[in-house]
Amino acid sequence: MNLLLEGNMSEKHPRECRPFVLVILCMITGIIASLGAVVFRCLIAIFHNVLFLGTWSFLYDANVHTPPSPWGFFVIFVPVIGAIMVIYLVRNFAPEAKGHGVPEVIDAIYYKKGVIRPVVAIIKSLASAISIGSGGSVGREGPIVQIGSAFGSGMGQLLHMPPWQTITLIASGAGAGITESVESIVGIIGSDEIAGAIKEASDLFPD
To answer: How far apart are CA 36 and CA 47, in angstroms?
Structure first.
């Protein structure tokens, strides 16, 4: 056990992982966040096809025009229905899931020591998928940053890690999520804001 963890072993105090353990946890977080991004894209496809076409399908290409909807004129109410669903989910289950995604993660890093409730990943996935799938003018990158970050924060909380290590996992989750979302390794650059916050946050929370 001493090989894995340093410091106080009490559940009430943070337990700092050794560097090689932290690297492994970052890799695990990245894999989970990447899988979360895949699920997120599938959710977008499902909601888009159900709401606009009345069919259940995981296939959706945003670069291809959607066929005429069977709803006819009433298709104009699809975005309205989507908006109502999003408002209900966010207001009742995870108010912090509202917004772009990145600012909320930065806020959690600076003011909450990297603590993001696990339910945020679920509600953000559903709300953002509904919003995008119903025609909302939003992108995937912001939501997937918050989703991936929630995975990293959740793992840090589960293992009672100190804030700076939890924030490191947050950056790993965010970077992996963006990379999968844009289907390019350069997507890791998108986590530079969070990576920059790690250095400053580690100065604020050294223990």
So the answer is: 16
